[in-house]
Specification:
Elements lengths: L11 H11 L7 E4 L9 H16 L3 E6 L9 H13 L8 E3 L4 H13 L3 E4 L3 H7 L17 H12 L9 E4 L14 E5 L13 E3 L1 H12 L3 E5 L6 H10 L7 E5 L11 H9 L14 H7 L3 H11 L10 H15 L2 E2 L1 E2 L2 E6 L7 E7 L9 E7 L1 E5 L19 E4 L4 E9 L5 E8 L17 E2 L1 E3 L4 E8 L24 E9 L12 E3 L3 E5 L9 E8 L8
Parallel strand pairs: 1-2, 2-3, 8-9, 10-23, 12-18, 16-19, 21-25
Antiparallel strand pairs: 4-5, 5-6, 6-7, 11-22, 12-15, 13-14, 15-20, 16-17, 17-18, 21-22, 23-24, 24-25
Helix pairs in contact: 2-11, 7-8, 11-12
The structure holds one RNA strand of 75 nucleotides.
Length: 556
RNA sequence: AGGGGUAUCGCCAAACGGUAAGGCAACGGCCUCUGACGCCGUCAUCUCUUGGUUCGAAUCCAGGUACCCCUGCCA
């Protein structure tokens, strides 16, 4: 289908893997993409997915899809299905390797008892608030819990009773016994298990105690034989804990954690909380709103998986906080669509044109290329008649300097058809031009001047005789500020009031009545569009603008 | 008693002691029946800063500075 530039450049992870393979540390690599099923995936996750699956693919290893489902209070089946679909849509396949951290709950539980037996874990009875107070601060050591030194047998008994459901939520937790004075807060006796009497989306109600992320993640990696456990920077502080569990438990392998900088994109927000707020407050229309950076939104908008993959490759991977400009993503979309999108004529804001010297009852047809650079994509017939529609923007009574579209007295080419000269206009009561009159040059049939004169401007048009009506949704950036997320100001203040402009009287080529919603089209001189898979009906076409074409004119 | 990170062109990002890749953007120009696409050219004597080591430093050392992350029974 679509092209994909394969300019692969070096990054620190590839270097590490190449080295591990070269030295024989690993014969092949195993990575994993570990989402928590508590929300929908967004473009930031795409970076991680492309990284993990991409690395595995590049080095001939494998990548697991593992749901980090350790908190039933927040997770849902719907998210699991949605995440799987998004990963597949992006073009990756986990094959047999679909896992759930919850599949390891038995083993994790055994390991928790193992720590208790070793005197390295204890049942805490302080409240959450008391635990917080005992934890100390960034610059002060914590205080040990009075329950920290209770006998192994007592811990074991209590933990087993926690598991059997004897205590209510929050009554007790299991803690690792590490160091309340550790400068790394994660080592100040972190919570391992908490009581949550809630059904789990994957394992039902077989448990009422659930492991924390820290107690589940590294061990899950170890169970699966993950060689390179890649996560975002904020987990760097957790690495000593990650290592501590691997060192203190009889795990089958010892994965290594590596961190990279998460994706930040300008003109959007990526936090789950904010996305959720936009959706629930109806500031956008659902999780798949085409303006959202969610994978569902991007997909509905019409971005292609290949474009997203190219984007992830283009931005690279590093360890420094970075902000990627939205224009890079948009450019990747254009690059992909330019290759594969058939060209078509569509008028977004119609202005009626009458060719006065063209017979009223005459209909003609012209051959139009589906892709000027790719004859193999074929051509189609477009019909021409006395009355046409052109873009309002393509006519100017009083043209600015450098304007070379239709102007009174001037010549312009109607793409694939004829050269016409504007001879007059018709106005409404307000003086607004509502109709333009032209004379066509019969000798220019097909668009070329018989005398070889150069016509600078070529504009698109659609025959009034058989144009299809359509609604067109022009999407723009959701926010007016590159960083709506910056502190201090409510990000919603930066919502772009024109993030979607709905045009209800567009006129498109007759042939578009039957296009498939998966087809991405280029409306010549306008941008790339596709039928909205949700709202478009056979008798009521709705097009989404995926991205505009670059425009060197309005930029001036 | 704090800990962990990061600083290379407007935005990303290579470079692993041998004399600053690449992409995007920008700016010139060419081409053009899409002001698109494509093509050509320009774009860091310099790597946050100050010193030091070295024949040689973005890379090593020392001291500054700036920014990010960490005090959930979230992940």
């Amino acid at each position: 289908m679509s092209s994909e530039s394969t300019t692969v450049s070096s990054n620190f992870l590839r270097v590490i893997i190449e080295d591990d393979l070269a030295t024989g540390k690993h014969e092949s690599i195993v990575t994993r993409f570990p989402p928590e099923p508590n929300g929908y995936l967004h473009i930031g996750h795409a970076k991680s997915i492309c990284l993990n699956f991409g690395l595995a693919r590049q080095f001939g290893g494998r990548c697991h899809l593992r749901f980090d489902d350790t908190n039933p209070a927040k997770e849902e089946l719907e998210y699991i299905e949605s995440i799987k679909e998004s990963v597949r849509w992006l073009g990756f396949d986990w094959g047999e390797h679909l896992y759930y951290a919850s599949d390891y709950f038995d083993q994790l539980y055994q390991w928790a008892e193992h720590l208790i037996l070793q005197g390295k874990a204890y049942v805490e009875e302080l409240t959450a608030d008391e635990i917080r107070k005992h934890r100390g601060t960034l610059v002060e050591a914590g205080v040990e819990s009075p329950y920290r030194n209770r006998p192994v047998e007592e811990n074991l008994d209590l933990f087993r009773r926690m598991r059997s459901g004897e205590f209510p939520d929050g009554a007790k937790v299991l803690r690792a016994r590490i160091d309340m004075a550790a400068p790394n807060m994660n080592l100040r006796d972190p919570v391992l298990y908490r009581i949550i009497h809630a059904p789990h989306p994957h394992v039902g109600d077989s448990w009422c105690i659930y492991p924390m992320y820290d107690f589940a993640h590294g061990q899950s990696d170890a169970i699966e034989g993950i060689t390179h456990s890649i996560c975002t920077l904020e987990f760097e502080d957790h690495k000593p804990l990650y290592e501590w569990f691997l060192d203190n438990l009889p795990v089958p392998s010892h994965p290594r954690q590596y961190e990279f900088a998460r994706l930040n994109l300008t003109y959007t927000v990526m936090s789950k909380r904010k996305l959720h707020e936009l959706v629930t407050q109806s500031l956008v229309n659902g999780w798949d709103d085409p303006r959202l950076p969610t994978l569902m939104g991007i997909r509905r908008r019409g971005y292609t998986p290949a474009a997203v993959r190219a984007f992830c490759e283009r931005i690279g991977v590093g360890r420094s906080d970075s902000w990627i400009d939205m224009s890079i993503l948009e450019d990747c979309v254009r690059e992909d669509l330019n290759e594969c999108a058939p060209r078509v004529l569509a008028v977004l804001r119609p202005l009626k044109v009458v060719i006065d010297n063209y017979p009223a009852d005459q209909i003609d047809e012209f051959e139009a290329a589906n892709h000027p650079q790719k004859p193999e994509m074929g051509s189609r017939k477009v019909t021409f008649s006395r009355e046409l529609f052109i873009e309002q923007d393509d006519f100017a009574e009083d043209p600015p300097k450098g304007f070379f579209r239709m102007t009174p007295g001037g010549e312009v080419r109607l793409r694939y058809a004829y050269i016409v000269r504007c001879t007059g206009v018709v106005r409404d009561d307000n003086g607004t031009v509502i109709e333009v009159h032209c004379q066509y040059d019969p000798a220019s049939r097909g668009g070329s001047a018989s005398d070889g004169r150069k016509i600078k401007g070529t504009i698109h048009w659609v025959s009034a005789s058989n144009a299809q009506d359509a609604e067109v949704r022009l999407f723009d950036r959701l926010f007016t500020d590159p960083n709506p997320d910056r502190g201090g100001i409510d990000y919603k203040q930066f919502l772009n009031p024109d993030s979607v402009v709905t045009l209800t009287s567009a006129k498109v080529e007759a042939g578009l009545a039957t296009v498939d919603s998966e087809t991405r089209l280029q409306f010549e001189r306008q941008g790339y569009f596709r039928l909205d898979p949700r709202d478009s009906l056979p008798d009521r076409l709705v097009f989404n603008r995926i991205v505009t074409l670059k425009d060197a004119w309005t930029k001036k």
